[in-house]
Design a protein that fits this description.
By secondary structure, this protein is α+β, with helices and mostly antiparallel strands. The protein has three domains: 37 residues; 89 residues, Disulphide bond isomerase, DsbC/G, N-terminal (Nuclear Transport Factor 2, Chain: A, Roll), CATH 3.10.450.70; 123 residues, Glutaredoxin. Helices cover 34% and strands 18% of the residues. It has nine helices and 13 strands. The strands form four sheets. Strands 9-11-10-12-13 form a five-stranded mixed β-sheet, with helices on both faces. The relative contact order is 0.12.
Length: 290
């Protein structure tokens, strides 16, 4: 009565077209399941899996911590007092700063300050520290040459303009080359307030924040604007003024190899690059003349 194939009625067997539809539906269901697992994090690399990859690829670097939740697409790697980044596959290594343009915060500087609160970090130099030398992707010969920050510096070539003077007018004087978006500069500013010294602050916009420097320098109350800038508080109505002094600061910094911020210069010309604790900063300032 019915046509059969191995005992089954032929009208119950799927046609070739129906077979194709069923196969496509099955493939779609499998793809959806894989996507769901990836979304749920089952297939996404974890901190532990990235750390395991780094132990294989950077065997001489003692990794202290891996955090893949700080920056989307990157994992923050702490190795002792150093900090660098890798992608989530653990294949690509990134040495440098991560800057949040929305919150206007140097995430690398803030994190390094947490790791090394009492250690000279040397501005950008420490943030760019490579993994242990045995694993460094670039040898010293491969790295671009940059002039070293001098140990002593004469400020005689700088004009009076371009400086924001604050603090105790009768205290010891220290000149600071800074950037208002630099986390270390903010920490140093707080330390200098507690030291009751006279600060001659010269913004150099090392992080490409010249617009903010202009607004602080042109404010009616520059000192108040300076501290508000470090606190990430609104500066109020912006004004315009002669900012050629800031230009002079930046030319001076470039000419003398000041690569990062902050850089402190005391009365006798001695230079300290980076951030130290209030105690060590006080000892440095005390070593020179007023």
């Amino acid at each position: 009565m019915f046509g059969t194939d191995e005992g089954w009625p032929s009208r119950l067997l799927p046609t070739p077209k129906q077979w194709l539809v069923m196969v496509l539906v099955f493939v779609a269901l499998v793809a959806a399941a894989i996507a769901a697992k990836a979304t749920s994090g089952v297939l996404r690399p974890t901190n532990a899996s990235v750390e395991a990859l780094l132990k294989v690829r950077l065997p001489k670097t003692q990794v202290s911590k891996v955090n893949c939740s700080v920056v989307d697409g990157l994992c923050e790697v702490t190795a002792g007092s150093n900090l660098f980044y890798v992608d989530r596959t653990g294949r690509y290594l990134v040495i440098g700063r991560v800057y949040d343009m929305e919150t206007r915060q140097d995430l690398t500087a803030t994190r390094l300050l947490e790791i090394n609160p009492d250690t000279l970090v040397g501005g950008a130099a420490k943030a760019n520290a490579a993994p242990d030398r045995g694993d460094a992707p670039l040898t010293s010969g491969d790295r671009p040459s940059t002039p070293a920050t001098p140990k002593h510096l004469s400020l005689e070539g700088l004009p009076k303009d371009g400086a924001i003077v604050w603090g105790n007018p009768n205290g010891k004087t220290v000149t600071v080359f800074s950037d208002f978006e630099c986390g270390y500069c903010k920490a140093l500013s707080t330390a200098l307030v507690s030291l009751n010294v006279r600060v001659v602050e010269r913004p150099i916009s090392a992080l490409g924040t010249r617009d903010l420097s202009n607004r602080v320098y042109c404010a009616k109350d520059r000192v108040k604007a300076l501290h508000r800038a470090y606190a990430r508080e609104p500066l109020g109505t912006s004004a315009t003024c002669d900012t050629s002094g800031l230009d002079a600061n930046e030319r001076f910094a470039k000419a003398h190899g000041l690569q990062g911020t902050p850089v402190l210069v005391r009365g006798d010309g001695a230079v300290m690059e980076g951030f130290r604790s209030a105690e060590l900063t006080a000892a440095f300032i005390a070593g020179g003349r007023s």
